[in-house]
Amino acid sequence: MILAFLPLSIVIFLYFCKICTSNAPLLTDWPLVGMTPGMLKNVHRLHDFLTCLLQQSHHNFQFHGPFLANMDVLFTCDPANVNYILSKNFTNYPKGPEFGKIFDILGEGIFSSDGHLWEVQRRTTMSIFNHAQFYDMLQKTVGEKIEKALIPLLDHVSKHGIEVDLQDIFQRLAFDNICSLVLDHDLQSLSLDLPYIPYQKVVPDVEEAMLYRHFVPESIWKLQRWIKSGKEKTLSKARETIDEFLYTCISMKRKQVALKNSEHISAELDLSAAYMELAYKENPENPDKFFRDALVNIMVGARDTTSTALSWFFWLLWKNPRTESKILQEIKTNFNTEDLNNCNLFKKKEEMHKLVYLHAALCESLRLFPPVPLNHKAPKQPDILPSGHRVGKNSKILLSFYSMGRMEDIWGKDCLEFKPERWITEKGDIKHEPSYKFTAFNAGPRACLGKDMAFTQMKILATTIIHRYSIQVVAGHPIVPKGSVILEMKYGFRIRVEKRSEGK
Ligand code: HEM
Ligand SMILES: *[C@@H]1O[C@H](CO)[C@@H](O)[C@H](O)[C@H]1NC(C)=O
């Protein structure tokens, strides 16, 4: 199986080395059109291409768009710049007006807004996620989903030797979980027959189109939107599907609130009820629009990230069986068989710190494959970055979190290797890395609000799956990241599952 994979990975590796080590400029700056042709040619594999550009240019690369198209971008993966932009001079680096245009699908939700609208949504979301009882609800929701949906499914496919897309399964799982937690309604997209859920199907197309919009002049993508062609055609169809889903959720939630018949969620943990209340305050004319925006942001923020992180993690484990056996050993030492069999793990929040090696392996996986590979910023006022680069008012800056994990002078000569050990101190504790170096969850005042929640889900899931099953990637199936704003696996994650026999 591994042998079958070798030729392909060697080809990819050699190719990567070749483009990265050559000193010739990777992009030509043409008159009038700038570097756009070369960029569009590489946008399907943007993250690796960008990593080479940033390596050649020592962490900062100035991209020139077409003449007068306002498309210049400064790409950076320089920790000093990242620290300055995300934390030290946070107020001068909002997402900016351009972000809202590109990511119009997110409306004025937490990811796309700045100033007051961002602050109130952040405060509301945080108050619920940090609530003392939130952890218990999360642990229970995740455990039940695994027991009632994931295990029956994996048992079924292992028994019949069926090939499945594990990324799709993780997306369904994360989707059901966030819907249960936020809407108090389990959509049961994860079940034996893997039902077709239009919303789930279209989200990846949207994310791909969002990246493309960064490198095409606004007038052109707007024209494409108007005449309904190319990626913009897919996008407008997707938008309808997404809105239909969200407005159904909203009317369902209204009924739930009116009848006071929330099934499981107590009032102080009810995030969608809190958003609804906020909607009337912030946008009394059109509260449903505000509510829609808040919901879609939280759905994308939770589902696509967690499922992407899990997919890369399990792929890395498959490539590194030694790490897998170490985790398996750690699980056996720390949990008793009864809790393992009942999927009732990490009952108390403190237990999250128990599996040090698993935590290290998850961090290592997020370092190499951060689910959110880019972060978009636009200075309010002209400024000079710590690297000496000048940035103009409203100019575009893209921080490449993907490239940060792949720079030798940030992580050392072995930066491309998967080594959980780099996260463990000599005393056997987790080594803390500053968030401007390990940027998977962003840093500063806009750092991810779901980090603990993500680790909780990933740990419960990883523990259960690793303990019960061994996963085999289908021979010859190509695994590459997609050119998108979320670092999904481009062709999915085709695997077969084998049940571990007792004591193995
Ligand atoms: C492995 C999983 C996750 C990763 C890698 C991740 C990563 C990130 C990143 C990079 C950002 C900054 C985005 C930006 O500013 O453009 C962010 C923000 C955010 N994340 Fe996560 N996230 C994860 C899981 C979650 C989960 C499960 C939730 C729960 C709903 C969540 C909620 C949020 C929210 C609300 C923000 C917006 C913060 C703000 O702008 O103030 N995330 N996350
Ligand atoms: C942040 O940027 C502004 C605008 O250029 C500048 O005036 C200010 O001095 C910077 N603040 C810090 C803390 O560097």
TrEMBL record:
Keywords: Heme, Iron, Metal-binding, Monooxygenase, Oxidoreductase, Signal. Residues 1-22 form the signal peptide. It comes from the Eukaryota. One of its GO terms (biological process) is lipid metabolic process. It holds the Pfam family p450. Heme binds at C448. This is Cytochrome P450. It comes from Daucus carota subsp. sativus.
